[in-house]
Amino acid sequence: MESSCSTFNDIDNEHPKSIIHIDIDCFYAQVEMVRSPELCTVPLGIQQKNIVVTSNYEARNYGIQKCMLVTEALKLCPNLKLVNGEDLHDYRAASNKIFAILQSWKCPVEKLGMDENFIDVTNLVQERLKSTDVNNITLSGHLYEEPSMECCGCHNRLKIASQIASEVRKKVFDELGFTICAGIAHNKLLAKLICPLHKPNDQTTIFPQHAVNFMATLQSVRSIPTIGSKTTETLISQKVLSVSDLQQVSVEVLKKHFSSDMAVRLKKLSIGEDNTPVKQTGKPQSIGLEDSFKTVSVKSEVEEKFEALLQRLLVLVREDGRIPVSLRVTLRKKDAKRLSSHRESRQCQISPSLFTIASGTLTVTASGQQKLMTIIMRLFNKLIDLNKPFHLTLVGLAFTKFQERMTGRSSIVNYLMNDISVQSVLNLQNDGDTSVSSMDYSAASPSSSTTTDLSDAEVEPSPKKPKKVNWIAKRRCLSKEDIASPSKLKVGELRLNSKELEKVSELRLNSRDRSLTPRASPAKECLSDASDTMNDVAEGGNCDDCPSYVDKEVFNALPDEMQQELKTMWKNPSSSGMPVQRSSPRTNKAKPNTILKYFVPHK
Ligand code: TTP
Ligand code: MG
Q1: Which residues are catalytic?
Q2: Are residues 202 and 235 in the same domain?
Q3: Closest residue by CA, ligand 1 atom 8
Q4: Pocket of ligand 1 (CB under 6 A)
Q5: Which of 97-106, 272-281, 422-431, 446-455 shows the lowest mean pLDDT across its residues?
Q6: At residue 131, does pLDDT exceed 50?
Q7: What percent of the chain has pLDDT over 90?
Q8: Which ligand is nearest to the CA of 57?
Q9: Residue 19 C-alpha to ligand 2 middle, in angstroms?
Q10: If you placed Cys at 223, which of 105, 218, 279, 307 could pair as Cys (CB 3.0 to 4.6 Å)?
């Protein structure tokens, strides 16, 4: 595949970029058709509640449109095969697979909802240009109007981009069976708007010179992606209905109704100018779900709605894999006085210990779910005065912040990220006791939520820091089940940072002597049982050569290669930066960022 192409930015011309917009054909319907090919030949509608949210192209021949009522659709096509599409799991999975394929061109890919993506192929095009005869570049797919004279070289660049778009579409079809449409242009706006010109399963390129004409064909200003309903309303109030109207209205007039920046931006959009970058999509900053309905006015019904939403949301969070640390509740109240509905939100922090990661999978216990429901209803009570009647038309739940995994320079994760697994001797999972398990409260990522009223945020009490002795006892008092089936954990998922690991090491080093005399107290008895078992499961672990300050349990829990590495270094300490002797502080200094620093003797 191609080399990286995300940094090339020095093209000195008017239209330097090459952007591809991808839109999957009748997305939900295609997922169903790929799963059940017999559906390909019948008119198919995807039903959510009483609406057909999309349909295959066979059904569209009958006049069925997106978001049509089921009753209406059945009138148009009595044979319409309806599939329930309320569970989005498979659609999301398909969307992620397509996104993964798009990433293989190693260009920035920005996901827009579930079935659209932008790819910035600017640098890839530049690379290909170097080995291409510029007089012989062919365009793949359709072109919006015949080309005029070459502009700044952008025609050739966009032609190459159109070839890349073909390759992308072919690869997605070959590997996953999905047909998609593509739009190719020198900016995101035009790429997106030109994309549906030849639907389905085709692609269209537009050259910059045709932007103004093309934009003038759009009937409604609402067709422009960044123009929402409020802006549309304001424009309509000024008799600006079509994009052509917007092209003609003066910026001065617009400035009377919008900020100066917005007025200028609207004018630029109207002629197809847009310089927003393709932003590489990472993990979402919040994961949420909403349910809308006619009216709900009883608390128990609200609770049921939240319960159902929570179950679905937990599936999404499990797929995401990060531990949430903040929860937001949203309501939309029907407000007779305001003659319109509006949303209100409250959010609060939640303890990461409500979640566990076992064998690489995020889970939440039944009691954790109950606690979450308690928190949700507490937030609900803050939003609603239950002494008065209320009428809701929507409830929403979202996890809005997530715990970051510690992958800094000094994190042990650095050493162990390559899918290395260790036995549960290092497992710091919680056992329901937050004081033991909640290791890292400070690492939550900042929220991007705009609806959150942080001043009102309810903060769950922070778990107290564990007392050392308590911690050791609890750590060692593993249940029989834990011991019988030590979980294989990816170390990267333990969320250990260097301090935490130092704490583990320290505690283990402290407990070294006690493990030799395990029956001195009940806690130690438990510790002895656990450590015996751990020694059993750490097969092949042999720490006869370890220096005396090393905890054998910790050592045995490490992967074989790492054990070997350590042993080699202990045999040849001068080359390793390893503490050779406790009494030799100068040689005790471990090299920065080496695993050996986690084995420093306890002082
Ligand atoms: P779209 O891309 O708008 O539609 P589509 O992919 O089904 O059809 P097209 O061939 O015209 O691109 O939306 C993507 C999916 O999003 C669609 O398959 C179903 C879902 N969807 C909703 O859930 N609600 C909606 O209101 C719309 C428009 C789509
Ligand atoms: Mg689509």
Answers
A1: 116
A2: no
A3: 26
A4: 23-28, 53-54, 66-67, 115, 199-200
A5: 422-431
A6: yes
A7: 57
A8: 1
A9: 18
A10: 218
Number of structural domains the chain divides into: 4
- Are 487 and 363 in contact, with CB atoms under 8 Å apart? no
Look at 175-189, 396-410, 530-544 and tell me which has the smallest mean pLDDT: 530-544
- Is 280 a member of any domain? no
Q: What is the CATH number of the domain that holds 203?
A: 3.30.70.270
What pLDDT is recorded for position 208?
96
Contacts (Cβ under 8 Å, ≥6 apart) of 566: 546, 555, 558, 595, 596, 599
In a domain, 478, yes or no: yes
- pLDDT tens digit string along 256-266? 999 999 999 99
Reduce the DSSP state of residue 55 to 3 states and report it.
Answer: strand
Q: Kindly state whether residues 201 and 62 are assigned to the same domain.
A: yes
Last residue of a domain, one of 173, 188, 207: 207
- Ligand 1 pocket check: which of 21, 25, 27 to mutate, most ligand atoms within 8 Å of Cβ? 27
In a domain, 281, yes or no: no
Measured in Å, residue 140 CA sits from the centre of ligand 2 at: 21
Q: Are residues 337 and 428 in the same domain?
A: no
Kindly give the distance from the C-alpha atom of residue 148 to the centroid of ligand 2, in angstroms, as a whole number.
Answer: 31
Stronger pLDDT, 526 or 325, i.e. the higher one: 325
Cα 561 from Cα 441, distance rounded (Å): 32
Residues 313 and 421 in one domain: no
**pLDDT band, very low/low/confident/very high, at 358 (cuts 50, 70, 90):** confident
Domain boundary among 207, 239, 256: 207
User: What is the average pLDDT across 507-521?
Assistant: 30
The pick from 25, 66, 116, 291 for probing ligand 1's pocket by mutation, whose C-beta has the most ligand atoms within 8 angstroms, reads 66
Ligand nearest to the CA of 30: 1
Pocket test of ligand 1: the residue of 54, 55, 112, 179 to mutate, having most ligand atoms within 8 Å of its CB, is: 54
Looking at residue 517, its pLDDT comes to 27
Distance CA 569, CA 571 (A): 5
- Token look-up 């100066």 returns 260
Q: How far is the CA of 219 from the centre of ligand 1 (A)?
A: 20
CATH number at residue 253: 1.10.150.20
Q: Count Cβ neighbours within 10 Å for each residue of 178-204 and write b for 16 or more, e otherwise.
A: bbbbbbbbbbbbbbbbbbebbebebbb
- State pTM to two decimals: 0.61
- Owning domain of residue 396: 287-403
Residue 555: pLDDT band with limits 50, 70, 90: low
Using alpha carbons only, what angle is made at residue 497 by residues 491 and 502, rounded to the nearest 5 degrees? 100
Query: Which residue, 195, 44, 184, 29, is CA-closest to 121?
Result: 184
Same domain, residue pair 21 and 139: yes
- pLDDT surpassing 80 at residue 98: yes
Same domain, 350 and 416: no
Average pLDDT over residues 383-387: 94
Both 180 and 61 in a single domain?
A: yes
Q: Name the closest-CA residue to atom 25, ligand 1.
A: 53
In a domain, 275, yes or no: no
The length of the chain, given as a count of residues: 603
Q: Is the pLDDT reported for residue 112 higher than 60? A: yes
Whole-number Cα distances in Å, 372 to 53, 95, 357, 378, 402: 31, 29, 17, 10, 15
456 and 562 fall within a common domain: yes
Q: How far is the CA of 29 from the centre of ligand 1 (A)?
A: 9
